[in-house]
Amino acid sequence: KPSIGSILKLSSVYGGDKTVIFTPHVYQDVFIPGWALKVDDEMIGYWPGELFTHLKNGASRVRFGGNTYISPDGISPPMGNGHFPLKDYQRSSSFLHVKLTNHRYQTIEAKTILRNADSRCFRLMDRRYTKENGKSFSYGGAGGRCGI
């Protein structure tokens, strides 16, 4: 069961048939002012509205971010499955069906995904919308001495 600060023990097998999918959902609560995080329809966390007063009427954009822990010797660990993303979803760590909830509490597909990554160690791949995967992006890399 995912929770804040937990380690996800389930994982997909690179190039294999086993695929593990988590469905995160961050949304503005309609009834209680604040923001909630669900994973696979299970409530994980909640941020009271007082923390984000500038978001009381919704958000105009959403940003995803991630990083890996850099050890004291300057070596970054792998991200995603440890490989750069490829066209083949079975060989890429990905976010599928990226959606947003607008100010009318309607779920809409994300449109543009901008990318920025250290290309020596990590890469991002924006993917076109498909019926099967919705709007999606893939990410990953071997890590190493990235100079970050």
Automatic annotation (TrEMBL):
Signal peptide residue numbers: none
InterPro entries found in the cross-reference section: Glutamic_endopeptidase (IPR053168), Neprosin (IPR004314)
Pfam families given in the database record: Neprosin
Chain ranges of the Neprosin PEP catalytic domain: 1-147
Listed PROSITE patterns: NEPROSIN_PEP_CD (PS52045)
Domain of life, per lineage: Eukaryota
Protein name as catalogued: Neprosin PEP catalytic domain-containing protein
Organism annotation: Brassica oleracea var. oleracea
